[in-house]
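Tutorial, part two.
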Amino acid sequence: MTISPKFLSGSQIRQTFLDFYAQRGHKILPSASLVPEDPTVLLTIAGMLQFKPIFLGQRTPESPRATTSQKCIRTNDIENVGRTARHHTFFEMLGNFSFGDYFKKQAIAWAWELSTEVFGLPASNLVVSVFREDDEAFAIWRDEIGIPGDRIQRMGEDDNFWQSGPTGPCGPCSEIYYDFHPERGDNIDLEDDSRFIEFYNLVFMQYNKDAEGNLTPLQNQNIDTGLGLERMAQILQKVPNNYETDLIFPIIQSAAEIAGIDYHNSDEKVKVSLKVIGDHIRAVVHMIADEIRASNVGRGYILRRLIRRVVRHGRLIGIQGEFTVRVAESAIALSEAAYPNVRRREAQIKAELAREEAQFLKTLERGEKLLEEIVDRTKQQANKQISGQDAFTLYDTYGFPLELTQEIAEEQGITVDLDGFEAAMEEQQTRAKNARQTIDLTVQGSLDKLAETIQGTEFVGYAELSSLAEVEVILVDGKSVEEAAAGTEVQVVLNQTPFYAESGGQIGDKGYLKSGDNGDGLLVRVDDVKKESDFFVHFGFVERGTLRVGDSITAKIDNSGRRRIQANHTATHLLQSALRKIVDDSISQAGSLVSSERLRFDFNSPRAVTAEELQKIEDLINSWIAEAHAAEVAEMPIALAREKGATAMFGEKYGDVVRVIDFPGVSMELCGGTHVSNTAEIGLFKIVSEAGVAAGTRRIEAVSGQAVLDYLNVRDKVVRDLGDRFKAKPEELPNRITNLQNELKDTQKHLAAVKSELAIAKSDQLLSAAEELGEFKIIVAQLGDVDTEALKTAAERLQQKLGNAAVVLASIPEPDKVSLVAAFSPEVNKKGLQAGKFIGGIAQICGGKGGGRPNLAQAGGRDASKLQEALESARNQLVEGLG
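Running the prediction step on this input gives:
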C-alpha cells in the first residue's frame, strides 16, 4: 500500500531508512570518524569509505549487509555553499551496503520500495539515470520496476561512474531524481536543479582502480548506496532548499537572532550569509568533535578556513562581537541524539571556536585598518580603483571578504579591480597546487591489485621478537617483482611479522630479514614498517643475497630499539595520567610521537603548565616507576573498556573488541602499541621541555631510561664547560651570569646615550642646510649608521628647532637594514601631509613598511641600495605638497 507523502523530521527520515534496511538483514553500524583511515582522502567524503578494505578483499565484513548514517565533509565546491539550494560542506549520507551478497536487481528494487512505499514519493515525480554502458541496470528499471524508457537517462563517467578517491573501489552507478515540476512535461534535463534533485545514488561496485588508472574486476560484486538526508528532508518537508529543513534552520535562526534580523524578511545577500553560517557551524562542530584542531595544514587548515568564513559572514550581517559559541550550541543540540560525541566534546568544541574566533577578529581589525589606508591612497589616484593585488592581500592575509571590500569602496565612491583580484587568486592557487604535498600511491596501488590474492599480515610482535615468515610480496619502486638482488631498496609484505608498524604515534620497528645460519645468506635491513590496510609493509635494503617471493625467512627486530620504544610509549601513558591528576582532569591527548630516542606528547590545555607543576609531574611519574606497577593487558568489548574508564588514544580507530593496557591505579588506555611489562623497566623519566604549539595545544618532550643518562651527560658537559670559563662552581653560575647580564645592560644604555648625543650633534649641523619652501622649512638627509631611537630623537629635535617644518631622516644601522623617521609640524599636517602615511610610502621603495602618528612616524626597509632613491622621492613629495 502506498503511503501518502507526509512531513518527516530529519531524525525520523534517518531512523526510517536504518530500520527499513535492518528489517532486510542489514546490520546498523555507527558513523565513522571524519578523520579517515584511507591515506588518499583528507576527510571522510562518503559512506563507503570505512568499508573500502572490505570492498578490496583486505578485511572480512562482520555482516554481509550493513546500513549507516555517515557524516561527511566535502569542500571542493565551498564557494557555492549558501548560494544554491543544496550545496554543503557537511552533510549526512544514509547508506545500505552489500559485501558480495546482493547486487543490482535487489538494490534497485529496495531503493524504489523505500522511495515510493515508505517515503511515499509519487512514481510520477521520479526520474532515474544510469551509466551509458550499463544495459543491465537500464533493463531492470524499465522491465522490472516499470519506469518508462523516456524517464531513464543514460549519462557519462562524470555523472554516473563513482570512485572514492584517486585509487580504490569504483563502478557504474544509477541515481534517482525527484521532479518538482512534472507538469513541465517530458523534456527532461537533469542538469536543471530548479526542477530536479538527485537524492539517491546506487553504486554498483565492480572494479578496483590503481594508481595508473587501470580498472580490474573485484573478486566480489558489491553495493554502495547513498541517500542524502538533507535532500530527502527538503522533499518531504516541502521547503525551497536544504537550509530551511529542520536539520539546519534552527542554527540559522540562532545566528539571525544574534544579528537582530529575520531570515524570511532579509534580502538574498543576508540569506546567503546565514546559510553559510548554518552549514559551516555544523561542519566545524563535528570536525572538532572528531578531534580535528585548527592549524595551517591539512584538515586543520580546512577547519580554520570554515571558522573564519563563519566569522566573516557574521560581520556581513552586522554581528560585531564573538558569536560562534552561541550558534554552536544549536548545532550540538540538533546533533547529539544521533552523534552523542558532540555533547561529550562540548567543552573542547566551544574552547576551539572561542580561540579561533578571538584570534581572527584581531586579524580582521588589522585588515580594516589597512583597508582604510588603501581607500585613502586610492582616492588620490586618477582611476579611483583599489588594485586587485591590494584586494587580494586583504582577502588572503587578513581574511577580509572581497564583498566587504567592495561595499566599503562603493561607500567611498571608488571601485575594486575584480579582474586583478581574480588574477591574484589564480596565481596563489597555482602556487598552492605546485607546492601541495601529494601522497605517493604507488605502494598502496600495488597492494590494492594484490589484495585479492594474498591475506593480511599476522602481527606476532607482542609476544615474539623474531619469527619465521614467508615473503608474500616484494615491491621495487612501487611495482610488484618476483625477486630483488643485493643493493636494491624494497618494500616487503610477509604473511606474519614481529615488526610493529607505525601507528598511534609509535614509530615502526627496525631490524633484519635473513635466511641461512652462515654469514653469506640473505640479509635485508629493515629501516621502517608501515601498515597499509591489513598489510605490514617492511621498508628496507637488500644488503646481501637475493630476496624472492615465497622465501621462508627469519624476521628479527632490533631488541634494544624495541625496549627503548616501549619504555617511552608506556611513559606517555603515565604522562597523560599525571597531567590529568596535577593540572586538569579534562586534559586530552592531541597527538604523540614515540621513538627510541625520545617521546613527544601534545595535549589540549588553555594555559601553560607551570615549572612547579612540571616538577610534580616528573616526580609522580618517577614514583610510579619506582613502585614497579605490573601491566595487565587484555582484549575486551569497547563498551566494557569505556565502562572501566579506559582512555582512548588520539587518532586511533577502534573495532568492537579493543586492546587495553592497564597499570592498575596508575593508567588505563586503549592502545595497540608495545609496552613494558612493569613500570620499573622504564628506569627514569625526565621532562625536557614544555611549550605551546598551537592555540590551546601544549607539547611536552621527554626522555626515559637510557636516554635520561644521555640527556644528563650532555647537560653535565655544558655546566662543566661554563664553570671552567667563568671560574665558578656549578651552584655559582646563575649569580655570575646575572651579574654579567646587568653589566651588559648598563654598557648598552651608556652606548645608546652616546649614540643619541652623536646623532644630535650630527643633526645640529643640518640646521643651516634646511631648505625653505615659502613659510615651511624641510630637511631630508641621511645620518650614517645611527640607530632608530637616536634617529627619532634627532628628527624631533630638528623639527622643534625649525618650527614650521618637515624633517625626514634616514640611516643604515646594520647591513641590509634601513631606518626612516618623519617629523611634521601641525602646519604641515594641515597641508594634507601625514607623517605615518608619508613615511610608509617612502619605506616601500626600500622594500619595507611602517607608520605612526600624523606628526611623528618611523619605518624600516631591507634594501639599502634604494635609500638614495627613497630620499629623493621624499624630497620631491615634500616640495610638491608644501611648495
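The mean pLDDT is 86. In part three we will examine how such features are distributed along the chain.
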